[in-house]
Amino acid sequence: MKKAVIFDMDGVICHTNPYHSMAFKEFFAKRNMYPTEEEFALHMYGKSNSYIMSHFFGKPISGDELLELENEKESLFREIYKDKIDPISGFMDFFHQLKTNQFLTGVATSAPFANMELIAGTLSLFDYMESVLASEDVTKHKPDPQIYLKSSANLQVEPDSCLVFEDSFSGVTAAKNAGMKVVGVLSSHSKKELPICDLYIQDFREVDVEKVLGLLN
Questions:
Q1: Most distant CA pair in the chain: distance in Å?
Q2: 148 and 162 Cβ atoms separated by less than 8 Å
Q3: Angle, vertex CA 120, rays to CA 114 and CA 123, nearest 5
């Protein structure tokens, strides 16, 4: 039976959240807004831009206004991060171990495709991924399970044969709502800040193919 491993990107493949914070701080400072790091932890990490913008501006942000604001902020992020791309410890070894053992793999991120292109492209992951989904590919964002159910369909693997690596409350919830097993990556949040996961890791040196099979069997 085919088995699949699906990765969120921000905070899972790379620890990008500090750089998203820098981009958002610059973005908001232009508008004389100065959110705290605590506010970012509650209302930015793992959230879609539509949620983040609407929360901090205190009104619904959608349509062309959202696209314009999102493009501005994500361009700032890519400019800040482009020379700093560095996967979380052990990720590349673990990823290649999965491929050597015939696992299907995918990415399911709330970030725009341009961010994924920067990160996955730099790390040469696209050739090894059977499913690649970004914010443009869904109409409902995490914690809705749509992106994970769509990943499962792309991979042609039943949800209960998929293992997801996530780092945020909304991401873990989305994967669980899709009926998948979840590993919580503790890059941005502690165990108590996440829903209950099947396993928790600080980085990918703590996991291998045997542990994946143990979770999926």
A1: 55
A2: yes
A3: 140
